[in-house]
Structures are given as C-alpha cells and as structure tokens.
Amino acid sequence: MNPNRHPAQYYRLAYFLLALAALFWAGNFVLARAMHANIPPIGLAFWRWFAVAVFIVPWAWQDLKKQWPIMKAHAGFMLALGILSVGAFNTLVYIGLQTTSAVNALLLLSSVPVFILLMSPVILGHRLNAYQIMGMVVSGSGVLLVLTQGKLLALADFGHDAGLLWVLTGVISWALYSVLLHKLPKGIGGSGFFAVTVLVGVFGLLPFYAWESVVQQRPITFITDFWLTVAYVAFFASILAYMFWNKAVDMIGAERAGGFIHLMPAFGLMLSALLLDEAITVAALLGLGLIFAGLVLAAGKSIWRKSA
Q1: How far is CA 139 from the centre of its chain?
Q2: What string of DSSP letters covers 163-196?
Q3: 14 Cβ partners below 8 Å, 6+ apart?
Q4: CB atoms closer than 10 angstroms to residue 306
Q5: pLDDT for position 159
Q6: pLDDT for position 34
Q7: How far is CA 293 from the centre of its chain?
Q8: Cα–Cα dist 263/7, whole Å
C-alpha cells in the first residue's frame, strides 16, 4: 500500500505514540534519580522486570512456544542479548543515577548511535564512509564534553563522577545489544523474543539483587513510593512504551520513527529541570548539540543523495 494514501490522522497517531514512548522512557530515568536515595538500583531493576515478566510471558506464550526450538539452538546468543539489554542496560544506568544527575545520564544516553557506529565495522563488517567518520568525531567531541562537564583539558579527571562511568557502561551495553540484533536468527522476534530477554534479565539480576540486599545491606522497603515507582517503570516505561513504539514503527516504518528517539533527552532535560531542579549548563547543551550534529552529519550522504 502506498503510505501517501493514509489520512493525516494516521500519521498524527503514529507520531503521538512515538512521542509518548520517548516521554515514558525519559520519565524512567528521571524517576530513578528522584528515588535514588530510597530505592536501591539493582532492586529497582529486578522488580521492574519481574513485574514486566508477570504480564508479558502469558501474553507472549504462544509466540514463545513457536520460537523456542530456534532460541534453544542459539541459547548462548539469546543469553547474551538478554543480559546486555534487560539485565545490564537499565541496571547500570540506575547505578549511575545514584551519584550523577539525570541531566548527565540523559545526555550520555543520546550518544548510543555513536557507539553503534563504532561497533558496526568490527562486529558486522560494515565499512564507514567519510560522512560517518566525520560524524563520529563530532559526536565523540560532544560525549567528551558531557563526560568532562565542559572541562576538556582535564580528561584524566573525569572519573571523579563515578556515576557517569556507570551510565557510559550502560550505553555501551545497549549499543552492543543493538548491533548484535542484526545477527538475530530468522524466526525469532516480536513478543516471544521480548519475553525471553525479560526472563533472562530477571534471572540474571536475581543473584545481584540478593547481594545488594544481604551483603550491601540495602534491602527494599516495600512502601507505597516503591510500588508506585515500580508501577511506572514496569507499565509505562516498559510495556506501554514498547507497545507504542513497535506499533508506530509498524505504521510508518523504522526510518521515519527512528528520529523520535531524540525526543528522549529533550523530554528528560525538561523533566529534570522541572521536577528535580537540576541545572542545565551551557556545556551540557553544547555537548548535546554536538552529539546530534554528528549524527546528522553521519546520515548526510544518504540525505543528500535523495535531494540531488
């Protein structure tokens, strides 16, 4: 079907769903920062995905059964994807948010495409063109600006904010997961794939959650604030955001939908300023601008070809 035949309302609905998904994802990290003193990070990650598993596994059961033989044949690969995505990504960011601001975390999260570009030649054998190389240099400068908080001459000292290093590790984890998705075996996908990654993540987090609770003596206090937080990160930032994003991608395609991911840091910066009273520095905005400029530059060749 020619997409131009769809009425304007069709596209408005798709864009609305994409914007909501980005807003829910941004709210996830802002809320994690807001509750960092009351809810330990691994405990938050565990209960978030446990709640998602309770909902998603019964819903995806038929797809899961159908895809299980293929998944079993690629068990190591499936374990890696589940650990990198559900197990590691949000958990590492939650740990980072114990000490760094939501603004810093969201700025770093916007650099995921930069690391995907860096990893693709090594893992997938993709050759980078001149635009992509220049784009990575520009975006990389923005990442360094965020990491050093505007003090580029003091690169050796950026480790003073350990939270930034945790978030950076989470960014690298998600970028690696995103690149490895290109190697996903045929016949695996949709709700069945999502259910497996959630289950792998939950079981992978369990020993770390026990360690946090017993060894670190940071058990969860099951009060109203905790359950409300888990309800948001599980229902809105996981289930609804996943469903909205995938529905919109199905409606208008991945190329049109992809740009909406950049709404996440924009929403996050606004929420951080309004709800957490976090300052947005000139260096932070400049770093974000360089990251986005680099990504636009990296895509420039295909853009200019279309306009030629």
Answers
A1: 18
A2: HHHHHHHHHHHHHHHHHHGGGPPTT--HHHHHHH
A3: 247, 248, 251, 252, 257
A4: 7
A5: 53
A6: 93
A7: 20
A8: 24
Give the other-Cβ count within 10 Å of 183's Cβ.
11
Rounded distance, CA 232 to CA 234, Å?
5
CB 150 within 8 A of CB 280: no
The DSSP line for 191-241 is HHHHHHHHHHHHHHHHHHHHHHHHTS-------HHHHHHHHIIIIIIIIIH
Give the Cα-Cα-Cα angle 145, 146, 151 (nearest 5 degrees).
Answer: 50
Running DSSP on this structure, what letter comes out for residue 60?
Answer: T
- Which of 218, 307, 266 lies closest to 36 in space, CA to CA? 218
Distance CA 201, CA 190 (A): 17
Structure tokens at 176: 């690696």
Contact 234, 100 (CB under 8 A): no
Tokens of 39: 């809810």
Alpha-carbon gap, residue 174 to 180, rounded angstroms: 10
> If you search the block for the tokens 């941004």, which residue do you land on?
26
- The tokens for 98 are 């114990």
**Which tokens in the block code for residue 125?**
């054998």
Tokens at 23, concatenated: 């807003």
Q: Are 133 and 193 in contact (CB under 8 A)?
A: no
pLDDT tens column, 203-234: 999 999 999 999 999 999 999 999 999 999 99
Read off the tokens for 284. Answer: 């932070």
In the predicted model, residues of the chain with pLDDT beneath 70 are 1-5, 146-161, 253-259, 295, 298-308
